[in-house]
Amino acid sequence: GQSLEQPSEVTAVEGAIVQINCTYQTSGFYGLSWYQQHDGGAPTFLSYNALDGLEETGRFSSFLSRSDSYGYLLLQELQMKDSASYFCAADNQAGTALIFGKGTTLSVSS
Amino acid sequence: DTAVSQTPKYLVTQMGNDKSIKCEQNLGHDTMYWYKQDSKKFLKIMFSYNNKELIINETVPNRFSPKSPDKAHLNLHINSLELGDSAVYFCASSDTRTQTEAFFGQGTRLTVV
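Above: the input entities. Below: the structure tokens describing the complete assembly.
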């Protein structure tokens, strides 16, 4: 079957750095993406990795290792507004399946 | 100009009723999805439509049926609603040529009483 595993909860303080890991087991894997969802809102896209290595987008970075079936999202200089759920998601080569992990709830305190 | 819009935002209905949720995207994407998000926030893919053809149909009861009149629309019809159908349903779209970002609608909170 297809599955993505990520921690259920992470807590941190403002200004800190947090890494959310994701391991995946999917058929026809093409790339790994990350989404943020605030309570009551819709998932919004953060980052995408199709190749091994690090992608940096402002305070957020994402990493992929295809050989290890592993990726992570790195959040730097945490702010209170970063408190949300973060999902990793895997898509297939045809781009017709986007399977999500169960999400990681990040709580940022002052 | 909302990229992916779905209606209604809230839907309260009785068990046994039939209801539809509409979704439209104005991004020119070729793939649209329906997801169910339960109380534990798990985003479960229900359907994927690519160029009006059903690509994925996960283990979803046949009471749920996607209907796509054209590439920009993917509606979700639900027959004989059950209490367990209560959840937030999200429509999303993506472009398989770029395969990077999926855009989500605002969600429809369905409550079956």
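Note for the figure: The longest strand of chain B covers residues 43-50.
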